[in-house]
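Lecture notes, unit on protein representations.

Consider one protein chain, 496 amino acids long.
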Amino acid sequence: MTLKNQNKILIFFPTYNAEKTLQEVLSALPSDILQLNYEILILDDCSHDETFNTALAYKEELNHLNINILRNPESQGYGGNQKIGLHYAIKNHFDILVVFPPDGKYSIEHIETLMDTFEGSNVDMLLGSRITSALGAVKNGMPVLRFLGVKVLTGFQNILLKTQFSDLHSSYRVYRVQAIATIPYQLNTNDYHFDTEIFIQFLLKKLCIKELPIPVSYNRETSSNKGVKYAWNVVLATFAPIFHKISLFYERKYDVVEGNSKYALKIGFLSSHQFAIDNVPPGSKVLDIGCGDSLVGQELRKKNCHVESIDVEDPKEVKTIKYFTKMDLNIPNPPIDIERFDYVLLLDVLEHLAEPEKFIYHLRVKANGKTPKFIISVPNIGFLMMRLQLLMGRFSYGVRGILDLGHRRLFTFKIIIRLLDQAGFKIIQHKGLPGPFPLAIGLNPLSKFLLMVNGFLIKILPKLFSYQFILISTPYPTPEALLNSTVQSSPDYKDE
């Protein structure tokens, strides 16, 4: 074993009804382990057999090993037991955590290989794969149905998560403890799909995940609560970060990405950004209000448009953005010059304002009788998924999407039409937009199919199936502007 002694290692045995296999596993611990700075933690989750007493007896027999045995006062479930072990590793300042289920299927002797692979690398999670070789697990006694189930589930997850792993359902794992401390594992399920959720958290955090083939033996296949229920939970857990990313649902456990909170550019598919880019003619004078990082503006500049931008925060590359003004749009009567522009963009802006009615009317006044075209997009609170959330008693805000934490106002189609009508705007065009599926799973055949289906449903019931509404409108002249025009065009008008 080449693993350096300075690494403090916790070998964690989460046990439940493991009386028959625990002794065998402990007896097989490699002798090289004595050279390491290690501790063995056996955590019994209220087993109904003699697991705890067996562990105590074996600790007496193996008094040369550094073993700590704990028992939960109440059963925490598979995931709950894992959380306690992970927290123990963090609290006691371990460097590496080896999670080994002592169920008789995994070989403890290969712990050396796993930890050697971990040493001197940037790996944060190492998965012990049972099926990297074709049908290797089946040859070792893995039931065919289980093998097929693992292959199908892992393949499904690889497609949705854009990964390439052979086995995402092995419980034999090695973690870098420092990495565990950066994710909210405490929020994960107490059920068996805890392993799926923590894997996704590592993936979203962009931590380094690798896998290594490990031999297994199913000569002692133990009973399990997994099966159809487990597979269903895995499917739901895998969809959850996708729905979270496009904010159909908010999952705090997957809110792990830090840094800039501004929106990504949505182009290459039907979206508010692409619609605006397509509908602004080349060479136009454009005012982008609430520009974020001015990503849409950069695309319009490629069309030789003159773009000026406004936002409450500086864009990432503010030095490279010409004609940027930092401004709080919630102040009374913000000094915005409208009449010089052909197009005014309000993409995902009105929902962030305390009083969008006053703001949009103010822009009409600032147009001073001119009629620039406004391209306005707002989220649809009447979207089907929002209605289903309410039916399920959920109304959870998140960092993105319809229930963005920064949203102060909510809109349906009728409400945004009414707002613009009362502010004195003429609606030229309006359109329902589908969910931004490519942002979650990439622009691929699956996301294109979802966009197509969503687009078809929008044509049938736009108020129900539109993720967003986008409108092109133009302001009517105010009475003041009309009066001035009338006076100036009158034959008897004299400029005093």
